[in-house]
Amino acid sequence: MNQQELAKRGVFIDMPGQSFRGSLPELTAEQLQVRDRLRGDLHHLAGEIGERNLAHSEAYARATQFLEDRMSAAGHKVRRQVIQVKGRPCVNLEVEIPGGARAEEIVVIGAHYDSAQGTAGANDNGTGVVAVLALADLLATHKPERTLRLVLLANEESPYFGTDAMGALVYARACKERGDKIVAMMSLETIGYYDDTPGSQKYPPPFNQFYPTTGNFLAFVGNTESAELVRQMVGSFRQHAKFPCEGGAAPAQFEGISRSDQVAFWQCGYPGVMVTDTAPFRYPHYHQASDTPDKVHYDRLARVVVGIRDVVVNLATAEETAR
Q: What is the sign, positive or negative, of the torsion defined by CA atoms of 257, 261, 262, 267?
């Protein structure tokens, strides 16, 4: 099956630029600082607080408070959106960085902070969460043209995914009801594990025919309607980050496409992209008790997060973004 045949099925794998190859350079001073903050935040979230979901509601509330305090300390005003689930409150957290000339256009960067039952969720999705915290630091003084929103979302894991209790769906629906003009949503989902071993990367068909079999890259994944946004993100990451990345867009029914919080934004008519290390297609500790902070590759995570910062800055200033 060639790219033309894939395109007839709504699958797009042609991406701008070239993925980085070769030895990774030494970490920059900025990346070193980001790495140390990522490690400290993740050890607190997944190491000290641990499993956080409605089955462990006290830890869940502690995580919410930690994340709110952490973003407040970066100089942001944090807004809470409370979701009642069987009489128990769950909380979405939002930080908004106002835009300038195009403030009505909104770029959302989000990650779910609950963990699956039976796991501390260090990589899934503690890495996405601490990346949002790092972006709160890195973008604290940024003056974007478009409005930026950093959101930490509740209840992505089973049994709440796709239900009215899913934090991302509650958030996206509220945006839709207000008429918010979200031009891009980036879901940071399990981004901290990389493996240079040949054969370490798996895929569902037909993607196994086209992508690398070594799991050392970051992936940008969208539905067919978000294909142009995927291309823009991949092109920007490849331009700015010296780190391997791949991208693709396909109909939502393809296996692996409809994971994580971007799905809720698709349902509300917004373009969205999942940024991921591909989770169960690479990570041996996915949804296991062994998903602990020592499994995360912090040097590579720091490179990824600084690269994502540059993608976000580009999205906030780009002339055109997928609608």
A: positive
- Neighbouring CB atoms inside 10 A of 84's CB total 9
**pLDDT over 70, % of the chain:** 98
- Tell me: the pLDDT tens digits for 69-121? 999 999 999 999 999 999 999 999 999 999 999 999 999 999 999 999 999 99
**Structural domain harbouring 132:** 34-315
Alpha carbons 322 and 231: distance in angstroms, whole number: 10
Helix, strand, coil percentages (3-state) for the chain, rounded to 5, are: 40, 20, 40
Give the pLDDT confidence score for residue 8 in this predicted structure. Answer: 77
Q: How many domains in the chain?
A: 1
Task: Tell which residue, 128, 153, 132, 161, has the closest CA to residue 283.
Answer: 128
How far, CA to CA in Å, does 166 sit from each of 51, 84, 118, 151?
18, 11, 19, 14
Would 15 be classed as within a structural domain? no
Per DSSP, the residues of 229-266 read: HHHHHHHHHHHH-SS-EEEEEE-TTSTTTT-STHHHHH
Model confidence at 323, pLDDT cuts 50, 70, 90, reads: very low
Tokens of residue 286, six digits? 């996915």
CATH (domain of 46): 3.40.630.10
Asked whether residue 320 is domain-assigned, the answer is no
pLDDT, tens only, 301-322: 999 999 999 999 999 997 655 4
β-pairing verdict for 102-112 and 78-85: unpaired
Please report the pLDDT score of residue 205 as a whole number.
78
End-to-end CA distance of the chain: 29
